[in-house]
Amino acid sequence: MIQWFLFVSLILSALCFPEQVCAQFTDAHNYDTTPVGINQVELSYAYVHGNASIDSSLIIAGGKLNVYQGTISYTRYFGLAKHMTWVSAGVPIAGLSGEVTGTSARGSVTGAGDSSYQVGALLIGGPALRISQFENYKPSTTLGASLSLTAPTGLYNARKILNLGSDRWSFKPEVALSHPFGPQRKWQIDAYANTYFYTDNTSYRGNEILRAEPLTGFEGHISYVPNDKLWISADTRYSFRGTTSVSGVDQENPQRNFVLGSEINVNINNRNSLLFEFAKALVHRNGPALVGFAAKYDYTWGRGYK
């Protein structure tokens, strides 16, 4: 019975921090200027393996999680007050399995995860250009901002061992600075700052209340664009705080996480592109020791595309 309780706590603790378990970075070049009046559908697949200490009060030697997630998302780019703006929405389908090595505590579940939504804009250096105008555009320094949220639409049952939803809302405002440099501006630096805010989970472990402080993060991406078909980046993310309390009891578990990764983007043609991403947590205080990869396919269409 004790083993099952620890296993339940491990799974629930991990799923209450989906940004660490199922996601690594905001992609490099995410705030590049894009022609307005176009649409994009993205199909993605991600795998993440997390191990060891999820929570400082629940350090379980041999704890292992495997997350497999497929997501379909839609993005629309348009002009607002002469600035490039976008809205997007995504729905994931995921599978989760886990075990504690040396015990009989294990299980798996498959179903819908929490849906996500975003609105963003380039505030400086991001003019709203049609495709016909975009041909003569030269990359420049941009300042952008976005607001992302996740809704508690995923599979969640407080009486079950495994859940794919977090049973609470999260909100992530982000600001981004992108600066191309070097000969022919083939290099680019992207710097992002964001903070996750959470509502309370009022059915944590059945009838307890889980509350989390904001989790702040900083990201740095440096990329090289050898031609218009390819770019390669090195990525870092550092996040901290996010201390939790359960029914008013402070868990004394502030996080400190440092993730390192890389991305490769291949433009097949004007409509189709592929993105491959790898990430590994090098520092994971009170967070999962994760390693994972993702593959994404984007299809773009709209007036003016050939």
How is this structure best described in words?
The protein contains three helices and 17 strands. It is mainly beta and 306 residues long. It has one domain: Lipocalin (Beta Barrel), CATH 2.40.128.130. The strands form two sheets. A twelve-stranded antiparallel beta barrel has the order 1-2-3-5-6-7-8-11-12-15-16-17. A hairpin with a 4-residue loop joins strand 15 and strand 16 (272-285). The longest helix has 14 residues, at 2-15.
Q: Quick gist of this model?
A:
By secondary structure, the protein is mainly beta.
Please supply descriptive tags for the structure shown above.
mainly beta; four-stranded antiparallel β-sheet; Lipocalin; single chain
What percent strand?
over 45%
Mean pLDDT: 85
CATH architecture: Beta Barrel
Number of domains: 1
Query: What's the count of strands?
Result: 17
What's the end-to-end separation, in Å? 62 Å
Global outline: elongated
Helical content class: under 10%
Name the CATH superfamily classification.
Autotransporter beta-domain
What spatial order of strands do you see in the largest sheet?
Answer: 1-2-3-5-6-7-8-11-12-15-16-17
What is the helix/strand order? HHEEEEEHEEEEEEEEEEEE
CATH class: Mainly Beta
Named CATH topology: Lipocalin
In the predicted model, the low-confidence regions spanning at least 5 consecutive residues are: 1-22, 52-60
What can be said about the biggest beta sheet? Answer: 12 strands, antiparallel, barrel
Instruction: Evaluate the radius of gyration.
Output: 20 Å
Structural class: mainly beta
Count of helix runs:
3
